[in-house]
Amino acid sequence: MKLELRGLAPGTRLGVLAGLGRSGTRAMEVPGCLLYTHCGSVPHLTHDTLDALGRLPAVTQLPLATVAEHQEVLEAFREGAAKLAGLHDTVLFCSLQDPAAPCPAGYNTSKSVSLWSAAGRIELTVPKYVAMQAAVRPDWYQSLADGDAQPAGSSLKRVRRSVERTLTHLDECVLLHQKTAELVGAELFGVVEGADVREERVRSARETAKRPVGGFVLDGFQSGVMDQALRAQLIAAVTAELPRDKPRLVLGVGRPDQVLSCVEGGVDLFEGFFPFVATERGCALCFRFAMEPDPESAVQEQNGVTEDGGSSRTEDPEHQDLQQMTRFEMNLNDRRYRDDLRPLVVGCGCYCCRNHSRAYLHHLLVTKELLAGVLLMLHNVSHYSSFFSSVREALATDRLETLKSVVLGV
Ligand SMILES: [Zn+2]
């Protein structure tokens, strides 16, 4: 794996992660987001409908929490989760927790980390964790980490313990990784912890960077646990300690405003769960990211009116939980879409917007048709992926401030 970066303004990163996967033939542009899956499948979409999306991210994310209960099946299969799920041409990243599901805190010990699967809590020691990864056979995986220390909710002593445990887990993971035949050629990513304590964040980053890791996972910055200004300061402090030539992936950040802030702080990769959580609440992503909008929508923007008839100036709290709708979405359950024959987003080229209307999606949602999730997911994944293309274009043309204004509607 090789990260080739283009020379840009200090702090920001734009480039290509090349030589990916065990064959070393795949590449992914950064900043970018991974393809989110449950147990190796994109929720709501079959392989056929997934093809309607066109070009997919080169890296697919498989949260271990969604596959852990099938460890015995994977061990018997012996060819890894990607092949079992029919993902033939992808780079598989196996993370620990599911970013779209709640993860209760307070269950980790000095020797174990709790994983929350559909079947309940699974207590993982490092040997058990590496054995699970050996069954999954990912191309990338994160090391076991104690992410329980919460900003503003944990004592300094608990935060330090979280950093210590995570480093100890990493050292053990490195040793076992080197002895595990199924993981030859896989990249182990070290996890940076430290909650909201700057010195601990810096220590965690500095110490993790000394280990033989392929990249870095930044944990504890999830939406809802800290405000944006603090997240931006801490991420800048962390990335300043990390080597320039290895990728940085942040966990649990999906909102477009928070993604842009992390990109400014030097983050390369994001989990792609945000389109899924919007779909689950019956919402379509509708935020703008075109840096040259058409003249008609520009006039509407000046008047503070968005395509869905709502105000682009509405704010929502940064501390809101993952399940709450954000200002980047429109809620198709709302009766006001009952007779609205426009596509979800005017000008969107996705399958859903080319063929169906807001009124039809509203009807599918109120009658609880499964097709609602399929069509919403197609639009939301497509919209989110185009947003990331726009982020890369903005970095390439030095217009990140323009893109921020468009996305934030200011
Ligand atoms: Zn669309």
TrEMBL record:
<feature type="region of interest" description="Disordered">
    <location>
        <begin position="297"/>
        <end position="319"/>
    </location>
</feature>
<feature type="binding site">
    <location>
        <position position="353"/>
    </location>
    <ligand>
        <name>Zn(2+)</name>
    </ligand>
</feature>
<dbReference type="InterPro" id="IPR036511">
    <property type="entry name" value="TGT-like_sf"/>
</dbReference>
<comment type="function">
    <text>Non-catalytic subunit of the queuine tRNA-ribosyltransferase (TGT) that catalyzes the base-exchange of a guanine (G) residue with queuine (Q) at position 34 (anticodon wobble position) in tRNAs with GU(N) anticodons (tRNA-Asp, -Asn, -His and -Tyr), resulting in the hypermodified nucleoside queuosine (7-(((4,5-cis-dihydroxy-2-cyclopenten-1-yl)amino)methyl)-7-deazaguanosine).</text>
</comment>
<dbReference type="GO" id="GO:0005741">
    <property type="term" value="C:mitochondrial outer membrane"/>
</dbReference>
<feature type="compositionally biased region" description="Polar residues">
    <location>
        <begin position="299"/>
        <end position="312"/>
    </location>
</feature>
<dbReference type="GO" id="GO:0006400">
    <property type="term" value="P:tRNA modification"/>
</dbReference>
<keyword id="KW-1000">Mitochondrion outer membrane</keyword>
<dbReference type="InterPro" id="IPR028592">
    <property type="entry name" value="QTRTD1"/>
</dbReference>
<feature type="binding site">
    <location>
        <position position="350"/>
    </location>
    <ligand>
        <name>Zn(2+)</name>
    </ligand>
</feature>
<dbReference type="GO" id="GO:0046872">
    <property type="term" value="F:metal ion binding"/>
</dbReference>
<feature type="domain" description="tRNA-guanine(15) transglycosylase-like">
    <location>
        <begin position="26"/>
        <end position="404"/>
    </location>
</feature>
<keyword id="KW-0472">Membrane</keyword>
<keyword id="KW-0496">Mitochondrion</keyword>
<keyword id="KW-0479">Metal-binding</keyword>
<comment type="subunit">
    <text>Heterodimer of a catalytic subunit QTRT1 and an accessory subunit QTRT2.</text>
</comment>
<keyword id="KW-0819">tRNA processing</keyword>
<feature type="binding site">
    <location>
        <position position="348"/>
    </location>
    <ligand>
        <name>Zn(2+)</name>
    </ligand>
</feature>
<dbReference type="Pfam" id="PF01702">
    <property type="entry name" value="TGT"/>
</dbReference>
<keyword id="KW-0963">Cytoplasm</keyword>
<dbReference type="GO" id="GO:0008479">
    <property type="term" value="F:tRNA-guanosine(34) queuine transglycosylase activity"/>
</dbReference>
<feature type="binding site">
    <location>
        <position position="379"/>
    </location>
    <ligand>
        <name>Zn(2+)</name>
    </ligand>
</feature>
<dbReference type="InterPro" id="IPR002616">
    <property type="entry name" value="tRNA_ribo_trans-like"/>
</dbReference>
<protein>
    <recommendedName>
        <fullName>Queuine tRNA-ribosyltransferase accessory subunit 2</fullName>
    </recommendedName>
</protein>
<dbReference type="InterPro" id="IPR050852">
    <property type="entry name" value="Queuine_tRNA-ribosyltrfase"/>
</dbReference>
<comment type="similarity">
    <text>Belongs to the queuine tRNA-ribosyltransferase family. QTRT2 subfamily.</text>
</comment>
<keyword id="KW-0862">Zinc</keyword>
